[in-house]
Amino acid sequence: MSKEGLADFETWSDELHGGSWISWAELAAADWDDVANEVDGCVHEFRRSSDGSWRMHGRNTGLTRFAELSGPADARQLYSAGSVYPENTEWPDGDTRFRVGRLRRRDAVPDSEWGAVWSTMRTLADLHGDEGVRLVVWFDN
Fold first, then answer.
1. Which of 106, 72, 74, 110 is nearest to 91 (CA)?
2. Eight-state DSSP code of residue 30
3. Distance between the two ends of the chain, CA-based, in angstroms?
4. What pTM did the predictor assign?
5. CB under 8 Å, gap of 24 or more: what pairs does 46-51 form?
6. CA 43 to CA 29: how far, in whole Å?
7. pLDDT higher than threshold 90 for residue 129
8. Separation between Cα atoms, residue 90 and residue 88, nearest integer Å
């Protein structure tokens, strides 16, 4: 980790966990269509694309509409539908649908949010080699 990254980490260290890293070589070799072993705890929102296929729009998005469709008994179910409803339970809503299921790797880190990171890492890897570039992460509480 860089000195700057480590300094930032240390100022938050009481509230952080799960520090890790992954190289560009590992990311480039990943099977982005690989499906998780377990059902995701979140409800997934899908929207119909212009070609008629369903594309994942987000996780735990549109929760107000999901609550109207699913009628959960309490607010906790809004954030943990995957733990409450069976896998593949769906709530259709026109060109949107909500579904409980397993994530593919690409769903967990969509290009809409991570594309700039992948592009930057790819550029750095062209300069420094795939093993010479890594993404360092940690999570807050």
1. 72
2. -
3. 21
4. 0.72
5. 46/96, 46/97, 46/98, 46/99, 47/95, 47/96, 48/95, 48/96
6. 28
7. yes
8. 6
What whole-number percentage of the chain has pLDDT above 90? 51
Distances in Å between the Cα of 121 and the Cα atoms of 2, 48, 75, 129 are 15, 31, 39, 10
Greatest CA separation for the chain: 54
**Helix, strand, coil abundance in the chain, percent, nearest 5:** 45, 25, 30
Q: Where are the beta strands (DSSP E) in the chain?
A: 16-23, 44-48, 54-59, 90-93, 96-99, 134-140
- With contact defined as beta carbons under 8 Å apart, do 20 and 138 qualify? yes
Q: pLDDT confidence of 133, banded at 50, 70, 90?
A: very high
Instruction: Examine the pLDDT at 77 and tell me if it is beyond 70.
Output: yes
